[in-house]
Amino acid sequence: MIRAGILTVSDAGSRGEREDTSGAAIRELLVGVGGEVGRYEIVPDERDVIAAKLRDWCDGGGIDLILTTGGTGLAARDVTPEATLAVAERRAPGIAEAMRAEGMRHTPKAMLSRAVAVVRGSTLIINLPGSEKGVRESLGAVLDVLPHAIELLQGVTEHTKTT
Description:
The protein is an alpha/beta fold and about 160 residues long.
């Protein structure tokens, strides 16, 4: 089972002025593959706030995967990738590349995404777009590989598996 956290980055959402349909879509997709959401929060588009929450969830244990939604575009307030990179120990560029490639199949605007995927400790952090449609496309592109990624981060490899 994947133990996950969903961090929605939205100024309006953090003030209760916008419904978080993207976070709900992430939850739905994760539950569909046997994931369990143990943490969920909406924070404003503030780099330090985002980074602090990511550090807390990663370093506190109990979370294998953090999926952020929002703040990955070119707007001045879009700082989720910078906050994510600030807490990263290692990058996982293939995940973000796969999501952008899938997005490009639907709209050329997907090339504007600055989303990143990184590792901190044994937690995988993936930035997703802020729109529900973008979340479904991006997460759908990588969902099947996430259980294997989590196993690797937990130290389970072909060399350590017993038959």
